[in-house]
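Quick illustration, no need to memorize.
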Amino acid sequence: MKNDRTIDLNAIAWDAMRKYGFAPGFPKSIAGEVETISETLPHTGEKGVLDLRFLLWSSIDNIDSQDLDQIEYCERGPDGETLVRIAIADVDLFVPKYSSADRHAAHNGTSVYTGVVTYPMLPDRLSKGITSLLPGQDCRAIVIEYSVLPDGDVRHGGIYRALVRNKAKLVYEEVGGWLDGNGPMPEMVRETPGLEEQILLQTETIRRLKEFRMQQGALDLETIEANPVMEEGTVRDLVIQQENTARYIIEEFMIAANGTMVNFLGDAGVPMIQRVVRTPKYWDEIVATAAFYGEKLPEEPDSKALSQFLTRQRTADPERFPDLSLTVVKLMGRGEYMTLEPGEPPFGHFGLAVSDYTHGTAPNRRYVDLVIQRLIKSVIDGKESPYTLEELEDLAEWLSNREQTSQKVERFMRKAAAAVLLQDRIGETFEAFVTGASEKGTYVRLITPPAEGRIMEGEAGLRVGLRVRVRLIGADPYKGFVDFAYAGRL
């Protein structure tokens, strides 16, 4: 194996993008088009655009994120309700349908996050500048309103155009550490008048939202994805993104916002694209998995029963829970996009325990969100839908494929990064969990570092969830292979 300094992970990522049908770079036509876009916006007085810059908007995202799609603001309402406003960047204002940037975004369908390098759906001047809700600048947005009731249910509100200004760009780890009692209050929260109360109200509100969804049968899943820590062009470690209350704030707010968008478009009689996770195709195998853990699930799919089983297992065996979650995710099947015609009942999202769900809160990063934004703006403006039903059907099929294919690129690059990290440790023995065992192969996740690979020797008889020892016998970054031999039970 070559020395790790000779391995260009950026080049491997570029090749993987091309192999799976993505355009990893932007052609000159897009660069020229984007350079002509004016950043100047009318501040006040534009018809149909509310000036909401005075509200204490804030965002929570990764520390290095600049492509900010949404900001949030809450206020207390009557009888224990909370009014929530979610402002979504008006990307369509600067990326009109059929423009060069739009055609490129439609082809790729999504930003692709390889862990080594990010391939944005839109050029940086847009997604990290003009169409980003960065703090300290006036931005055009589409605002979604809904009320969270005392029991956590949602009453959908209106959607309208607005001018907004992000007052604070917050970071998941810092806010989550503070809210979960693992760190100090972030400096930005401490120094911004009213922001502490705002974030605490958001936290109180999403706890009601989450509890309500769990009562309806939402699945509390936790899968592990190890991202590379890069230093001087090579991989120095693999780290796991930790869930925390700050991440739950964004997750719960966006689920409710997406439901409000479906309701808004449904009331207007507009065909749309819905995000769907069907009733699990392999429910019998989920039942068998539960039986392995000594539990009995109903013969027919039941999200509440599955949710309760997962909650008990998270409490009983938190170390193995991510691998159980991964098994359930695989058996549930993939999420996909489907068209929803006016008057047709929503298909639903089995894992979220919601019937009205789309993707519309990240138009800088996902093309389907840009499509939904255009549909919403057509209703606001009283204009004809910019898409025919046939166009939406074609987009739903294509964007489902793009999402699944982007996940293949991301999985391949995680394996390539793990191979770089481990290539000098051939022959060493590691502790691991079995994460997959089928005719397609037997797979493990190491405890430290949290790398994934395949058992090529001695895999017969191993089951998901077993803790084992494995010996590293091969690591190939170019093929994304990390291979092990079984070395005994633990």
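The radius of gyration is 23 Å.
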